[in-house]
Amino acid sequence: MNLAGDGIDRVKSAADLVQIVGEHVRLRKSGSNFIGLCPFHSEKTPSFHVHVERQFFYCFGCHAKGDVIHFVEKMEGLTFADALRWLGERYGIPIDSRSRSSERKAGERRTLLEIQDKAGRYFRRELAGGGARLARRYLEARGLTPEIQERFGIGYAPRRSDGLLQELRDRYSLDQLRLSGLIQRNERDSRHFDRFRGRVMFPIWNEAGKIVGFGGRALGEEQPKYLNSPETSLYGKSRTLYALNLARESIRRQGRSVLVEGYLDCIALHQAGIENAAAVCGTSLTEDQVRLLGRFTKKVVVNFDPDEAGDSATLRSLALLLQGGFGVRVLALPDRLDPDAYIRRHGAAAYRQLLERAPSDFEYLLARAREKYPLETIEGKVAAIEELLPYLARVSNRIEREEKTRRLAEYFQVEETAVRAELHKAAGGGPRKLELGRSRKPSLGPAERQLIKVILDLDREAGEIVEQLERSQVHVGMESEVVFSAMVALYRKEGRVEAERLRESLPGAREQNWISEAVFEEVDQQQVDGCLEWLARKKVEDEVARLQRQIVQADRAEDFELVASLVSKKTKLILSIAG
What is 239-358's CATH topology? Predict the structure, then answer.
């Protein structure tokens, strides 16, 4: 969607980033800026900075960064356009769209969200009515309190075929109701009827807390036992995690998520105080869901159902989570109980103890292999190792993969070199794609960061430094050469260097993160002078290093006259630095 630039600028000017961030993060003053614990990853030492003057945030831990729109986008799980509208509504700024078709689609989306919301209210009202006694008894038998039913918006769809249709048809067209997935049409007689009838209803939200669909649980022998909303423009089961909107703050606070299979398992965990639980409903875990969960944490405990389907789902999930760089633990409950049944039988405290002792993904796979294969035979060992290697190959962290390779060799008492050779085959016989493009740790020194900060903040001194950089070419060959070259080019073109323009001109995330880090440097006039001195010193040191290489070459060639001349030049340069 093409949003009017004027609206974006007005929102940025009106919105106070410190105030918006402060509603989610406990900030404290640090120099002229603010610092706090990052809301986007788990940490004990504050690394999340808010630059007051530039209205810009940056985390030195996970490298999250951006302006107030990006913060709301990331924090609330919204698109850029929706985050802009959210801020526009808050500060009374109208946000215009230049695209009529985009505005029409946005209007259709708002209508569908409104229909889902009204359906949720209808189902809640029906649950309290006289026709829902069986549904209420079912929920009571499952041990769900009125408070947890309210929190999860649980309702009831009556058995009549057109209850919801009659509720909504005066306000919405039949086309709109069909698009919502809540109303269906009989192709034989074109009669319209409710999709959900005689079922306990569970609203399904997106990560921003908007109802996008429903799951309905049959109360009798009707099949299917669970019926979900169809795929719509709002809802896709492969890209939605149930209750993530309710769990995300707890996930961020605890630094991990518990992933279960069904609505009732997830609700039971929340009722037991385990509020970082989310569920995969009606589908195996998908790449879209892994990416969605990865916005909130990179640690997860998988606790799927103990049947054969649940075991297969666990294995598929491990493959995706490991490839996504997650730290994974697997909880397999005793007596082949699912989470809901285990908590009702043994209590929340017993479940919590098992949760804390859940083995790592690799220990779970080793134990599973021990149960499945006769490890006292060569054939059993080979089969077990071959089953484990694909998971090992998907581990994205090289150090972790090395440790697990050693553990595998020890566990099965085989040569580590043999395991490595087989792992190489399992990974495709060459460099694995998982390792490509991994970001390197920023390696700028304090002087380089201060130098970037001076050029960004100052005018006259920035001009002097740019002149020296261009004249001396001292930055050539440095790790940060691309940054300083871009700064020179921008200054020559625009007469100043702005942080956002500089970030846009840089090729990769590593270099862009250097700029974000440099923005939070505190620089005074003394450090400005120090940057100029550092440039001069760096030029001399580079020349000394060049002369030393020539001295070594001349000495090997036994050209002692040249050695003496080069040593003399090198000595004078060293004395100039010292003096």
Answer: Dna Topoisomerase Vi A Subunit; Chain: A, domain 2 (3.40.1360)
Q: Check residue 328 and give its pLDDT.
A: 94
Check if the beta carbon of residue 155 is closer than 8 Å to that of residue 120: yes
**CA-closest candidate to residue 280, choices 326, 313, 254, 255:** 313
E-state strands within 314-466? 327-330
Alpha carbon separation from 169 to 115, 164, 282, 527 (Å, rounded)? 10, 8, 29, 70
**Residue tagged 């099965």 (tokens):** 412
Mean pLDDT of 456-467: 66
Encoding tokens for residue 276? 């970082």
* Segments of 198-256 assigned E as strands: 199-205, 211-218, 226-228
Q: Tell me which residue has tokens 């997935």.
A: 181
Rounded to a whole number of angstroms, the CA Rg of the chain reads 31
Residues paired with residue 279 on neighbouring β-strands, in sequence order: 242, 260
Q: Domain extents for the chain?
A: 5-91, 103-235, 239-358, 365-431, 446-578
pTM of the model: 0.63
pLDDT of res. 491: 78
Contact criterion met (CB below 8 Å) for 330 and 314: yes
Q: Helix, strand, or coil here: 145? A: coil
Residues 6+ apart with CB under 8 A from 258: 269, 274, 276, 277, 278, 300, 301, 303, 355
CATH architecture of 103-235: Alpha-Beta Complex (3.90)
Q: Which residues of 444-469 are buried (b: 16+ CB within 10 A; e: fewer)?
A: beebbbbbbbbbbbbeebbebbbebb
Cα–Cα distance between 91 and 70 in angstroms, integer? 16
Interior CA angle at 132 toward 131 and 133, to 5°?
Answer: 100
Per CATH, the architecture of 5-91 is what? Alpha-Beta Complex (3.90)
Token code pair at residue 4: 């009017």
pLDDT in tens, 133-146: 999 999 999 999 99
Question: Class of the 446-578 domain?
Answer: mainly alpha
The average pLDDT across 380-384 equals: 89
Task: Evaluate whether 483 touches 452 at the Cβ level (below 8 Å).
Answer: yes
CA dist., res. 225 & res. 245, Å (int): 25
Taking alpha carbons only, the member of 282, 281, 280 closest to residue 290 is 280
Q: Does 99 have pLDDT greater than 80? A: no
Beta carbons of 535 and 469 less than 8 angstroms apart? yes
Q: For residue 251, which of 208, 291, 295 has the smallest C-alpha distance? A: 295
